[in-house]
Amino acid sequence: MVRTLYSSESKTRAHGGRMKLISEHDIDRVLEELRGNRKEPLKYIVNAMHKAQPAVYEYLMSVEEDELNFDERNLMLNFVSIGWHVIKETIGDGGIIDEESLDARLAINIDLIEEMDADDNEPEFDLISLIIDNSEQPVLMGFLINLVVDRPEDFSATVRDEVLLVILLHIKTVLDCLLFSEMDYGYEGDSDDYSDETRAVVRGQIADMYVLFKKSRFYMKLDFAQKENAETIITDFGDYMYVYFLLMPSDWTVLHAAECCTEIMPAKAADDAGYFTSIAPVLTSFMAFSAERGGIINAERIAERIAGIGDVIVKRADNGKKRKKK
């Protein structure tokens, strides 16, 4: 029977009703069937995942380079393969994950950890709870965390405690990519916390901020194409941050800003190459302006993050176009 760190309270918070929630019963059933049908079940699913998701396999075999020993990397590969198999057998096999998706999701998860880790008084268990609570499938994530942290008694491999959170970070990154390929981004318009009135207030705040931004030296440094797209980009960004995360400008976080730029805007925004190439420089300038002027608490950190993901945004947009043409 599956033991999990996951609670019923976190189920509502993390899942949000956007896809079928994988249950403890589902995990037990899938793994029991696997053990009953295969002589070497772990070897089978690792090979199957390698064939189905080659970029995921390469990511797991190369990430952290020499920082992980053979046993630690093998553990990470095996447990991700278990997660992939459970997802495939319960909610279906999604699209093929590419390198850009993994890199973008890793950056988002690093932001998630760093925001929590900024408080040195937070115990390690809170970081584990954070990983579970920010998973689209918290029961499955909790199950995999248990496998990593509380390994079977007959597990004789050398796995250092100091790398466990690193391993969990990469397991979550892969699972996030697999799960986000199965869903459209969660629109919060049906949430009890959403309101058209608040959305209108956010739009008004963004419009007022843009008027001031347009008069600033930060705007003047943008090139012609970036200026042409600036108002649309900033308006879209502010709107998406409320519609998808229920965040007012004063509450924007690095994590959600990066997620908005790499996951939502490439999928939802206008099909215009100039728009996508302008997202990073425009928002970086806008956040630098806001950091100086005030009003967005995390503006400086958001600017630093967005400045580093411009290529990822463009690649995600290009990949989205290719998928739409198929």
Tell me the number of helical segments per DSSP (H or I, 4 or more residues long): 16
Reported for the largest beta sheet, the result is: none
Assign the structural class, choosing from mainly alpha, mainly beta, alpha/beta, alpha+beta, or little secondary structure: mainly alpha
Q: Rg to the nearest angstrom?
A: 21 Å
% residues in beta strands = under 5%
Give the overall silhouette.
elongated
- How many β-strand stretches? 0
Q: End-to-end span in angstroms?
A: 42 Å
In round numbers, the mean pLDDT is 83
**Helical percent range?**
55-70%
| Poorly predicted ranges | 1-18, 182-186
Number of domains: 2
Order of helices and strands: HHHHHHHHHHHHHHHH
Give a short synopsis of this structure.
This protein has 16 helices and no strands.
Descriptive keywords:
2 domains, disordered N terminus, elongated, 16 helices, mainly alpha, about 325 residues
Question: Can you describe what's shown?
Answer:
Helix content is 70%, strand content 0%. The chain contains 16 helices and no strands. It is elongated, with a radius of gyration of 21 Å. It has 326 residues and is mainly α. The chain has 2 domains: 8-180, no CATH class; 188-325, no CATH class.
